[in-house]
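Anyone able to model this chain together with magnesium ion?
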Amino acid sequence: MEVELRGITKRFGPVVANSDVNLTIRPGEILGLLGENGAGKTTLMNILSGLYRADEGEIIIDGKTVDFDGPGDAIAAGIGMVHQHFMLVPVFTVAENVVLGVEPVGALDRLDIEAARRQVTDISTQYGLEVDPNAIIEEIPVGLQQRVEIIKVLFRSADVIVFDEPTAVLTPQEVTEFFGIIRSLRDAGKALVFITHKLHEVLEVADRISVLRAGQIVGEGDPKTSTDAELAELMVGRPVRFTVEKSPRKPGETVLDVKDLHVLNERDEVAVDGVSFEVRSGEVVGIAGVQGNGQTELVEAITGLRMPIEGTIAFEGHDITRASARERHRSGMAHIPEDRQRSGIIGTFNIAENMVLDTYYDDRYSSGINLRWPDIYRSTAEIVTDFDVRTNSVFSLANHLSGGNQQKLVVARELSRDIKMMVASQPTRGVDVGSIEYIHKRIIESRDEGDGVLIVSTELDEIMGLSDRILVMFRGRIVAEFEGGKAGIQEIGLAMAGAGAAA
Ligand SMILES: Nc1ncnc2c1ncn2[C@@H]1O[C@H](COP(=O)(O)OP(=O)(O)OP(=O)(O)O)[C@@H](O)[C@H]1O
Ligand SMILES: [Mg+2]
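re: yes, here you go
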């Protein structure tokens, strides 16, 4: 099934999200779709999948113009989308999620759950998408949740499948598996669109590349001959530096001192198993590791979102092991959480409200009785400009920002306060190459001003680029420590895989 988007234009009030876009999606092909944050990728694909209606232009399927009056029509026409932010029901099983809305019915119009399970298993086997149909969504890793989204789309017989930043939340191992899946879908004759901010990924897996900038198609890349640097320049309209520039660190006093920390996870299993380390003023400490090795729980304990069962945390010489998240925050600990939608922003609040979410009681913003809104709006406008959060107004709802711009909003808020320590989890998740360059620069500036910085990231490049010291976490413990700039990717990778760790 071949799909042609012809002359698509979409406006949101004064914002032109797509402007006269022409794009063809062919069967048996993976089309890589690139573009900076807010370029209009998700909007364009939401139009294709019937969530939005274009203001101008046509969707043509196998030569016939179609008119989608909602996602149901697009699904019926064979178009499926795996969204940037998953849309599964956390407390339902895999099978229940897959058949949601199109349940097979048995006797007395009851849900035939056996049939549902069987159908899920059939699709799993056919495309190598292994997953237990009885597993509860919230209890399985993100990589598997994504498989469920793919099975859901296949269950509705999609011939065209759009993947909106599928790899942003995956471990390297899961990315490799995902590439296997998307290739097998291509070989089965499906037409695929793959959106990502990781340029090497499109170069590896795409057959063709199209680049959007400010709502328009600005060029094509050829996966066989294009380079990262060319694609980056096409995306953002200027050359991008991929390496972080920094002077040698000048570590001062200890800012954060973690001693023999033990933390349990959601299921009451030991997630952090006796971790000790310190972060000094003026240094960046990076924690490398494959997702799920205790990093999340460690950060939650440090930022006050989860009580440790043993051990202590001191911040600037004070024991804060039992202090609330707000107390830590007030005393100068900033936090960029790993999941922006769950704990970074409130989507139905506007940008300015989100900017002062945790500082509104500050003298700067509050008289003690009233909030100083004009000051809040003015300061938000400045920060939004500094961090290049793409929006036409500080009164826009955070929900209406593109995914990467939501992330930039969180980073901007946390980096623009007067802080002593930054705890950043996956700080550049979903952010385009140009903005990554800027965020990294600001993190290094924060270090050079004497803040302590703790970075937790599953992106090894990011850890290696930023860190003065690198700690590797494996199964709840710190299994290796490296001097930044000295260790090779191989060495760190091996430690991440548990080589040399006591079993
Ligand atoms: N529902 C909406 N209401 C208002 N503006 C919107 C809405 N959805 C998107 N926009 C705006 O349209 C533009 C394009 O956003 P879109 O989400 O398509 O970007 P994107 O290319 O997917 O970016 P990212 O890489 O950050 O995900 C942005 O300026 C965004 O703020
Ligand atoms: Mg998007």
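The mean pLDDT is 91.
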